[in-house]
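[#protein-structures] MJ: dropping Chromate efflux transporter here for a structure pass
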Amino acid sequence: MANLAKDTPKAGPGRAGDIVPLPEAVRTWVRVAALSFGGPAGQIAVMHRILVDEKRWIGEHRFLHALNYCMLLPGPEAHQLAIYIGWLLNRTLGGVIAGVLFVLPGFLSILALSYIYVLFGNVIFIEGLFFGLKCAVLAVVLQAVFRIGGRALKNRVMAAIAAAAFVAIFFLHIPFPLIIIAAGLIGYMGGRAGLAAFKVGGGHKAGSGTILEDRDSALGEDVPVHARANLAWSMKISAILSALWLLPVAGIALALGPANVFAKIGVFFSQMAVVTFGGAYAVLAYVAQEAVQRFGWLQPGEMLDGLGMAETTPGPLIMVVQFVGFLAGYRDPGALDPLMTATLAAMLTTWVTFLPSFLWIFLGAPFIERMRGNAALAGAMSAITAAVVGVILNLAIWFGLHVLFAEVRAISWGAWSMDVPVIGSVVWPSLVLTGLAAFAIFRFRMSVVATLLLSAGLGIAWTLLVSWGR
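AK: finished. structure tokens for Chromate efflux transporter:
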């Protein structure tokens, strides 16, 4: 076999300690961000194809090791993976650049769509667009249940964890963070005990074909000098990032009062950044539970509209929270112009949602580099992923009730309660369009973006037809 190292790119002139030239890294991260559609699986696949297969900057095993750590963290794992690899290749500045560029295209796209939504949402064309997107998003969430379930539920223990998570959140309304923490503890103990059921892993499939060994990549298999565990550096960077994250939130709450919409947004989404494990769809269950039912910032259908925006724009799916913050500010503007308040609220939401990702990576990655193959961490990840299946199933049912039925009622007995649809209130156009979207995804393996665009077009056509028939 030819020596692959001969073809591995080496760093050119630039800052000392950079594995690859920083200007080339910036151009590559711009490309990664522009192509990051299709949720975390698609985004991770894009990074793998460009950084491992094409650029050969990082080896297969090193890439998966970084991914496994990111999947154990709260927040968007694809965003955290970009920060991690950017840091490995170009130190702290590289991590910051990779993380910012990964989010920026999605932020700008959703901000533009949010303006259109609140200014022209009552236009027939826009109504049809989001009607179609809602139906497609429901099919996409169902696909996520099957996709993640097929990967995570490899044995009866994992299936039992998923079932328990579903019962806990759907019937008992136990908060999502508690469910994930409990699953993580069970998995950690099972992995530490060496039980076979907790060795299934949970990472996304990175790629196939010839594997690029770590030693043949630009990064190599050794830990770079800047990536070696340094408690003083980790504490310093963590203090800076914690101040950038928490001081603005505390300042807003003290200056404007805890009842102010900016204070509520800052506190709520900061809490979300700490406790939301398991990917974007799991996060949505928590956001929907709180933003819709507790704060009343938006309606269930509008939550689906926001998810449709996030699905059709580059960047992490968790960018949907930016839309939630935008609507919260728009509907509670105080003394400011509604659009100004909405824009500031969207910026604040994005800041407190994504800045913690930098904290988790810069604080923990140097130590994680020394912990490859840790059985206890792998067990925790496996159990959390299994619990997320149950949480996403709850999300699919919740979305389905509000998309397919015009009326939903709550019934309860003892500590149990659940929402049930009024059968006579079924919305037939939504049912038909959701069925078509599901058929496109499951039968024809149509991509998420293509399905969303097709459903949006059908939604527009149906709405226009109904309008002309009046």
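MJ: nice. The chain has 16 helices and two strands.
AK: one more thing. The radius of gyration is 22 Å.
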